[in-house]
Amino acid sequence: MSHHIVQANNLHYTYPDGTIGLSRINFKIHHGESVALVGSNGAGKSTLLLHLIGSLVSTKGDIRIGDYPLNKKNLKAVRRSAGMVFQDPDDQLFMPTVFDDVAFGPINLGLPEAEVEERVMEALDTVGISHLIRRSPHKLSGGEKRAVAIAAVIATMPDILIMDEPSSNLDPASRRRLINLLKTFTHTKIIATHDLDMALDLCERTIVLHRGEIVADGQTKELFLDEKLLAMSGLEKPLTMQGCLVCSQVKLS
């Protein structure tokens, strides 16, 4: 199924001030893969994600999303195939009500009114916020806003789900609901995150970025056991892989 593939070939990006954002980025993500993008602040995670939806244009190299090379001509088709949930929900939500925000994508796909309403209700039910349907998004809590942003993307039924720091500012219960929800999405997932425990829970594969370059690409568990790699990349082992300090002290006593 080529329509679920994401591929970058020798991708470079230089910011207008001359700062290198991405350098020599090469990867291929196949149908159904769940891939984490991890790295410290400034590693290039968000910059790379914005390239995948055409919001930034590479200085050199190319990207293929599904059946399409990512260019101006194919941008609309690419954005039908790949949906992105932004790090800050306020960058994504702009309509008067939750219903309007979630309906925006399906309406722009040209769907009939009945199907738009069906998709909206299904997406809101999926993320557990159907009771917010008539509320203004800008009067919601941070976790509620994030849920609306996810519903807005789910309603377009993308083949590829791209998420930038989806668990940030979520309380533990909301974070667990999000992880359980993402486990039900069987298509391709690309998740940029500082939450390495969530990456371990959701993604069998991880790409590690450092200063705009890929420094590792492999099985998540193996990479997260590589303390030298993590330290060089400004990361630490997930808490679930660090062991229990209290238990260790009990054993020593």
What are the key terms here?
alpha/beta; Rossmann fold; single chain; 6-stranded mixed sheet; globular; 10 helices
Characterise this structure.
This protein has 253 residues and is an alpha/beta fold. Strand 9 and strand 10 form a beta hairpin. Helix 3 runs parallel beside helix 5. The chain is globular, with a radius of gyration of 19 Å. It contains 10 helices and 10 strands. The strands form 2 sheets. Strands 6-7-8-3-9-10 form a 6-stranded mixed beta sheet, with helices on both faces. Helices cover 36% and strands 23% of the residues. The chain has one domain: 3-Layer(aba) Sandwich (Rossmann fold), CATH 3.40.50.300.
Brief account:
The protein is α/β, with parallel strands linked by helices and 253 residues long. The chain has helices at 45-52, 75-81, 98-108, 113-127, 142-154, 172-183, 196-202, 220-224, 227-232, 245-252, and strands at residues 6-14, 20-29, 34-38, 60-65, 68-69, 82-85, 160-164, 188-192, 205-210, 213-219. It contains 10 helices and 10 strands.
